[in-house]
Amino acid sequence: MFSAIAHAYDINNRIHSFGLDQSWRRRAVNQSNPVVGADVLDVACGTGDLAAHFARQGARSVVGLDYTAAMLEVARTKALREGGAVAAIRFVEGDAQALSFSDASFDIVSIAFGIRNVADPDLALRQFRRVLRPGGRLAILEFAEPGSRFVRAIHGCYTRRIMPWTATLLARDDSGAYHYLPRSVETFLDPEALAVRVRAAGFGAVRTSRMTLGTCAITVATVDSA
Question: Which terminus of the chain is less hemmed in, N or C, by CB atoms within 10 Å?
Fold first, then answer.
């Protein structure tokens, strides 16, 4: 499904978030501070946008991991085109639930709009905790259902009726991806419930902030220092 939409993933993100998706990513990077000199693992990196933000902000190393080879091909092409620190990002194919990295390998683990697509989010969260060093940070960027009934009604009309149709046309997609994605938001944990799961995975302090009328949320958690 994600292979089928990789070629149009970026343009659909920009158009259907009204250009806000990049500002959400920048905010997630800012809330992951300190970034300068950090080793970063961006899980479910897709076409590499969040990984690129970390590289631009001075991370020592950035690994972008995704389950879908077609997404990674787009990410590599974009990174090489930009050059500089972004071109140094290492993109690898892999599973969030079975990370191939050693314990305590990273200072920051991030995942943007991907945790809800993992079959076993709790297993993935434990993997994130395993590969983080003491004092490391986890940043989860994910869509959410707005709290206001009025906003929720407008948002629901857009995500369930308008966006699936226009995004499918733009991507010329017959996989059903843009009908699945809004449903996956509705059926996934709300930010507060996700924070509970993050704590259960072994993280210390967890904080959640909602953005854009509650339609998107950042969850940041830390690993207790040794």
Answer: C
